[in-house]
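Bump. Still looking for 1D-myo-inositol 2-acetamido-2-deoxy-alpha-D-glucopyranoside deacetylase structure tokens.
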Amino acid sequence: MHAHPDDETIGTGATMARYAAEGANVTLVTCTLGEEGEIHVPELAGLIAAEADQLGGFRVSELTVACRALGVSDVRFLGGAGRYRDSGMMDTPANNHPRAFWGADLDEAAGHLVKVFEEVRPQVVVTYDEIGFYGHPDHIQAHRVTMRACELAGDAAPQKVYWTAVPRSVMEAGMAEFSGSTDNPFSGVENVDDLPFGTPDELIAARIDATPYAEEKMAALRAHATQVPPTSWMFTLAAGSGSDMMGVEFYTLPVGEKGPGVGPYGWENDLFAGVTLSE
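Sorry for the wait, here they are.
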């Protein structure tokens, strides 16, 4: 369950590619078309919301290509494409648009997701934490809608719900990696505690190693060209650390029983650990 096209790749792309390749049924639900995004392709600059307002439709095509790279074929929009609009960043005029996802009726939006649950019967659902990882209103709303849908879904509810996360130790390693780079996403930050995100390692539940699928994630990132420029720090990171950084993703587990794990904190290495699978 993701807020905008490209969120699926940035946050969970390697995980999605791994499970799709292993034969799991992976369903992506995206809540908006990403109409308020920036554009990093100069010749498409006129598509922005303040001008032609056609970016959302273009991002649908980018999402299609990205999911093809990840091996994910079941791609849906919450309530149908265009029902909810990208709300923009917090406290911007876009928050007040009549179709802004931020203002959606919670039970109505959750009802759309319940219908997906009833159809695909997921054992595992992945979304954001209560602050949407970094505070974007659509990420926060995606969290709220997902958790409400789990409450309403009855026997169609998942056995486990994971929230995307990055361990503090990984954030510290990233700060060190980029300390001398001109493309430093941590510029101006001196201490990991000053970042608005980052989860204590002991609170992480799962470390999903999908390093064999790091290139699939990179291909999906390239597909989101309007949002992820070639100079993005993510491509810099991939060039320096390769699959070691781009192919590993982390999660907390607010709903469900933690399965067997490894290491000092017992991190699961499989989102289906401990799940009862259908016959």
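Strands lie at 27-30, 74-77, 124-127, 160-165, 206-209, 248-255.

Edit: fixed formatting.
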